[in-house]
Write the structure tokens for this entry.
Amino acid sequence: MAETEILLRVRDYDLAATLDSGQVFRWREQNGSWIGVVGKHPMRLTQTRDGIRAETAAPVRDWDWLREFLQTEIDWAAVLKTFPDDAPMRAAVAACHGLRVLRQDPWECLASFILSSTKQIVQIRQIVSLLCERFGEPLTQPPATLSPRGGERAGAMDVSNLNENHLCYSFPTTKRIAATTETDLRACKMGFRAPHLLAAARHIADGKLDLDRPRHLPLAEARAELMKLRGVGGKIADCVLLFAYGFDGAFPVDVWVERALRQLYFPRRRVAAKRLHHFAATHFGPHAGHAQQYLFHYMRTKLD
């Protein structure tokens, strides 16, 4: 039966921390709910006592795509048990309890992180918003906001108060980006990242890189495959491997994570970058990427 609403029953899930932790860039908090797009589904997600309520503007028969995106079916307690039992990790988990790692579409994730280079999250959101508005496919408007009472409907759908234009568009395809120009992309305020995004889109659209291939490779080979793309270094590749392909051992190291490692694990010591990366690759266990996300969010929101 097709429905416009579903309750995903899940415990120990912090929706706000998950959607605002630098993994995705198309979600906005609005009156206690989160408005965004998954694939071609504009939607509203709301944290409730029993889990996450999801609402779409058009009826949906199979919600497995949303469960996959939110990763609501995994045994999160088992993941946490694999983290190292040290003071910094315990502090990060306690401060960011319920933070999860999402599972995204590979192209949207790759493109978004190509655009993230040297940018703050608020700036990345702006660039992605413009990109979707100018080159994405128009979608049905998302549901209206909820009443402030944390879950009750405010009445019939009314989308007149939604002014986030990017929420009305799908993420542009590789073919759509490949057919545009660097000048057009620079108009989306992406600067030097424009030729990188254009080259990646054309490389994929021309069949030179199959985006399904990395998921079938060992981690190191999958990383090397993505790094063949212009503008994709180790950090961006690891973000995509973790957030899109489910390589839990991928450990992206950006300025925030490096700061967390130095401040929390090597205080008052000068540690070479090579040793720091070796530590990151060996200390955090089979779900190191999840541990990384806790350290990233902890450093960015609690310690900075």
Q: What stands out?
A: The domain at 78-99+250-303 is CATH 1.10.1670.10 (Endonuclease Iii, domain 2). The chain has a mean pLDDT of 90.
